[in-house]
Amino acid sequence: MCYKIGIFDEEVKFISSIKSLQEKQFSIYDVFTPYPVHEVFHLPKRKSRLPSAAYFIGLSAILATLAFLYYTAVVDWPVVYGGKPFNSFPSFIVITIVLTILAVTIGSLALFSARSKLVPGRDNTIFDHRATDDKFVIVIDTGNLDKSAAGQAENIMNGLGAVEVIDKEFENIYE
Amino acid sequence: MYNRKIRGPLVEGNKSLGQITGDVVSPLETSPGIWWSAALGLSTLATIYGIYAIYITVSKGIGTWGVNNSVGWGWEIINFVWWIGIGHAGTAFSIFLLILRQRWRTSINRAAEAMTVFAVLCAAIMPALHMGRIWLAFYIFPYPNTRGPLWVNFNSPLFWDFTAITAYLLISVSFWYLGMLPDLATIRDKTVSKIRKVVYGFFSMGWTGSSRHWIRYESLSFILGGIAAVLVVSVHSIVSTDFAVGVEPGWHTTIFPPFFVVGAIFSGFAMVMTLMVLIRRIYRLTDYITDNHMDAIARILIFISLIMGTAYLTEIFVAWYSGNEYEMFTFFHNRITGDYKIQFWGMIVCNALIPQLFWFRKMRRNWVVLLLVSLLINVGMWLERYTIIVTSLTKDFLPSNWTPYKPTFIDVGVFVGTIGLFATGVLLFMRYLPMMAISELKSVANIGSKKED
């Protein structure tokens, strides 16, 4: 699989390249940046659904914790503490809050790890090593493009101040 | 939004992105120098003393401590509350300042989170040892057991505390690790050593900096920040209920949760200050942790110090205003003028009076003053817990219960051991992990700098 990789050293040039590539109907495979650049967050054409997932994890954690506390304190082994009712709901709230926070944290981390395919020891394909240091990288899949189109993409990026534009071939892509 | 003329640039010296990477990664790549080995040796010695004290405690029992029938809680609970308080630095710094969008936190939050993790670990040792028979510690987990099944008491603040501390530790570690992912990848791609490449590569989990990763990463940071912000106020509130639910004079008051939370953030920020003064001087990171950063922490400290002073006065006022003779006795005869008056006045001077120095700009910008005051605040916070626990327990309602309290060599050992453990953790962190959030620093590198104008 062939890719054209444009490397930029300034955020502004990088963003204007993306814009003009999109105007010319090039589909950008992915972009890599050393820090989150909000102007490119529309590229994957999808918003993160983590907030809604986290909301449902939290909701289920609340219900599960309260149900568990009710079961142990009222159904399974009721004990009178200081003459208070078995279902002493107000004092269950503390544990419910804490466990909900814990469940949301662990649950959304696990979802993040699964959806982004980030797990310890994983070797995702690195298109250019400098993307985690000081360069902004645009990757275009040239597999479906003819030579002149690929050349045009290269010219656009060069014209807008790319430090270099390289062609790379990968046998398999892990991402 | 950000006024450079008032607050100065967040990163000084017009750094390029590559320079930022280089500056943060270089302590990992170069030999740390003799001071590091010396400090590590010293902290290891302290840890060994702690391990010895824990060995004696576990093999002989907590009779080796200074606690007795009246004063059932001694140094270990003081240390527990103190460490948990220090452990609030990370959450206060990263999470509170993250959701308040205070971008000056970026050069400090990583170290604050690291501190949190080690401080909470130190704290967790204390109640575990206090159980006496630590090998039965698993009884505290609510699982279907063969003893009935008999469940734990979900109405008890002590159990809430266990839940809160466990959750806090797990959440702090998760937040810390998540924040480090992009930076571990940076080290992986930057280092020349093969071993480092493999190790950091393994832990960077295949991070590439792809826009898809960043979108989810930011979203996750805000979810965790938003939900864990509750922890900043809840953890120490729960710790305070351990006391407030008890009927001891001086403990049974409604001011305790806010009083404890504010105290925790106070000691957390003070410890961050101590660490930052040292790190920025030793590693010459004054371009990142600028004088303005230290100034900002000092301003927060003076604000919290005023709240602390108010809380101390409120406690005394309410004791008088309630007309309750036991409360009156505890505050006026036992704390202000009693056997432990040195601890009480030490607490007032260190926490409420000395930080007032930070009203002066010159003091906020003098590193010796910053270091000394931040250390004194933590001494004061330790004395505060001493005052609360020991004065109330040595002299309660019945004079026949009155017993003085003195720690033993073993008590001191457990405390010194945790300080050693904390210092060892921080030293290893400084040597092997990125001390500042590289990717976050890069995103604020231009804010307030001349480049932006």
Structure in a nutshell:
The complex is a heterodimer of chains A (175) and B (453). Chain A has 175 residues and is an alpha+beta fold. Chain A is built from four helices and four strands, in the order E-H-E-H-H-E-H-E.
Report the total helices of chain A. 4
Q: Report the sheet with the most strands of chain A, covering strand number, pairing sense and barrel closure.
A: 4 strands, antiparallel
Largest interface: A-B, 67 and 60 residues
Tell me the helix content of chain B.
55-70%
Largest sheet of chain B: none
Using the CA coordinates, give the radius of gyration of chain A: 25 Å
**Mean pLDDT metric of chain B:** 88
**Which series of helices and strands of chain A comes N to C?**
EHEHHEHE
> Any idea of the CATH topology of the largest domain in chain A?
Alpha-Beta Plaits
Q: Helix tally of chain B? A: 17
Mean pLDDT of chain A: 84
**Poorly predicted spans of chain A:** none
According to CATH, the fold-level topology of chain B is: Formate dehydrogenase/DMSO reductase fold
* Number of β-strand runs of chain B: 0
In quaternary terms, these chains amount to heterodimer
Order of strands, main sheet of chain A, comes to: 2-3-1-4
CATH class of the largest domain in chain A: Alpha Beta
Q: If classified by CATH, what would the architecture of the largest domain in chain A be? A: 2-Layer Sandwich
List keywords for this structure.
heterodimer; A: 175 residues; alpha+beta; Alpha-Beta Plaits; 4-stranded antiparallel sheet; 4 helices; B: 453 residues; mainly alpha; Formate dehydrogenase/DMSO reductase fold; 69% helix
Give a written overview of the molecule.
The complex is a heterodimer of chains A (175) and B (453). Chain A has 175 residues and is an alpha+beta fold. In chain A, 46% of the residues lie in helices and 14% in strands. Chain A contains four helices and four strands. Chain A has a four-stranded antiparallel β-sheet with strand order 2-3-1-4, with helices on one face. In chain A, α2 (50-76) runs antiparallel to α3 (89-115). The mean pLDDT of chain A is 84. Chain B is 69% helix and 0% strand. Chain B has helices at 4-7, 17-29, 34-60, 75-86, 88-99, 109-130, 157-190, 194-203, 211-244, 256-282, 291-322, 325-335, 341-353, 361-364, 367-394, 409-432, 438-444. In chain B, α3 (34-60) packs antiparallel against α16 and α10 (256-282) runs antiparallel to α11. In chain B, 51% of the residues are buried. The mean pLDDT of chain B is 88.
